[in-house]
């Protein structure tokens, strides 16, 4: 009996970090033909800085994009804690000292937009096509493959052997097809984040902030600042605190309204905290106020997670969810990008084994069985690791 063909073509929905990294890994390791469809009309300019820990840098290296990231991001790993109740800094310590010693990899902080540019260049060099501005209203399966139709964008319909849903926490692929009842849950915590050019700060403030990652404990939450580009010419800051969810039926619009209110309110809260009489932050508080003054780009970011339950499969038929679409977690464990890299790497490795002709390949099984077996092994290989990291992220968010 002839052996069924393993999958060779993939539609990837979502051109964020997960979609681009998965396309790259599958092309390089399994020689799959991947096409990426992204909802936005170009890659998004919104986003703060993303922290990449040592294991993430190692995986980026294995995909050949590490040099590009190091050329744009900031590799400082010195962490200094401050308290506004005393003028002295508590610390510092090198967060990546041990890993630099044992693995040769430190950590990197890079703007999400810079990271996407590096990935888009690598994807283009690998011959992978990315279609922007594609809105997806329908997915269906036939015996021969999976079909998606788009009601916006230049491509009206596409078919492939498998479809990978890499479309983030509010994933259309999950809602339309894989797991319609599984909805993201608001954690009760929201962040305010900003980007400020070093050129707009006093030279004393800029030099102090260039010195590393600074975490300041305040009575309302932790205020973090990090240099996020090579040469430390730009700083990213984030402040997290509890914010009730908006009481709106259309929750996305609700957040839009809340966003405007919160930005103004939180800016005032920050000035209030940093300059109130009870704090003795003095010079340090003045540096942080200088940073907020110099901020030209500011965003409000409600933190969601996707609760996990054993019945919530990550796949159905020929369709598999990866990255935040499958297992979004609060960013507080600093592992979001590592989870995406591990997802892409494991799937590429499993596919490359499936594509290598061998005597152990099941005879008589159809393509659907091969794909089902592949996706089952993928989910088995990832679920407990992802759930451990998600639990850790919840512990961190509760402690701030
Ligand atoms: C705009 C933005 C800014 C972010 N900023 C930060 C940050 O500052 N710090 C941080 O730690 N994390 C941030 N994140 C989250 C972080 O990028 C992810 O947690 C992580 O990188 C996982 O990546 P992902 O590709 O799975 O999901 P995402 O990064 O969410 O990417 C999903 C992609 O899919 C696209 N998409 C969504 N719906 C559809 C659809 N129906 N059809 C096609 N494409 C679709 C989105 O436009 C996006 O490009 C941000 C996410 C987004 C979308």
From TrEMBL:
GO terms for molecular function: FAD binding; monooxygenase activity. Gene3D superfamilies: FAD/NAD(P)-binding domain. Keywords: FAD, Flavoprotein, Monooxygenase, Oxidoreductase. The keyword Oxidoreductase applies. Residues 10-243, 312-356 form the FAD-binding domain. It comes from the Eukaryota. Belongs to the paxM FAD-dependent monooxygenase family. This is 6-hydroxynicotinate 3-monooxygenase.
């Amino acid at each position: 009996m002839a052996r069924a063909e393993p999958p060779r073509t993939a539609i990837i929905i979502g051109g964020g970090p997960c979609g681009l990294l998965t396309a790259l890994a599958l092309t390089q390791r399994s020689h799959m033909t991947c096409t990426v469809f992204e909802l936005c009309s170009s890659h998004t300019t919104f986003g703060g800085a993303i922290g990449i820990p040592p294991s993430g840098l190692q995986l980026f290296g294995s995909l050949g994009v590490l040099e590009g990231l190091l050329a744009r991001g900031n590799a400082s790993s010195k962490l200094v804690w401050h308290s506004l109740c005393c003028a002295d800094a508590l610390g510092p310590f090198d967060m990546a000292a041990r890993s630099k010693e044992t693995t040769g990899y430190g950590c990197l902080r890079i703007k999400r937009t810079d990271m996407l540019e590096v990935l888009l260049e690598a994807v283009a060099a690998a011959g992978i096509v990315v279609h922007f501005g594609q809105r997806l209203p329908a997915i269906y399966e036939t015996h021969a493959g999976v079909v998606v139709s788009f009601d916006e964008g230049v491509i009206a319909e596409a078919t492939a052997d498998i479809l990978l849903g890499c479309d983030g926490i509010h994933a259309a692929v999950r809602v339309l097809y894989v797991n319609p009842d599984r909805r993201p849950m608001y954690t009760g915590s929201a962040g305010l984040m900003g980007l400020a050019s070093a050129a707009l700060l006093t030279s004393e403030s800029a030099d102090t902030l260039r010195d590393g990652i600074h975490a300041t404990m305040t009575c309302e939450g932790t205020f973090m600042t990090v240099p996020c580009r090579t040469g430390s010419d730009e700083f990213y800051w984030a402040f997290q605190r509890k914010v009730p969810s908006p009481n709106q039926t259309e929750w996305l619009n609700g957040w839009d309204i809340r966003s405007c209110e919160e930005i103004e309110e939180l800016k005032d809260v920050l000035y209030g905290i940093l300059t109130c009489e009870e704090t003795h932050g003095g010079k340090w508080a003045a540096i942080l106020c200088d940073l907020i003054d110099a901020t030209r780009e500011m965003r409000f970011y409600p933190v969601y997670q996707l609760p996990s339950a054993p019945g919530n499969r990550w796949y159905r038929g020929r369709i598999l969810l990866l990255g935040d679409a499958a297992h979004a977690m609060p960013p507080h464990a600093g592992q979001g990008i590592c989870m995406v890299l591990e997802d892409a790497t494991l799937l590429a490795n499993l596919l490359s084994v499936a594509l290598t002709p061998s005597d152990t390949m099941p005879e008589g099984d159809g393509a659907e069985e091969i794909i089902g077996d592949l996706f089952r092994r993928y989910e088995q290989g990832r679920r407990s690791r992802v759930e451990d990291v998600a639990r850790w992220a919840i512990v961190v968010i509760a402690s701030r």
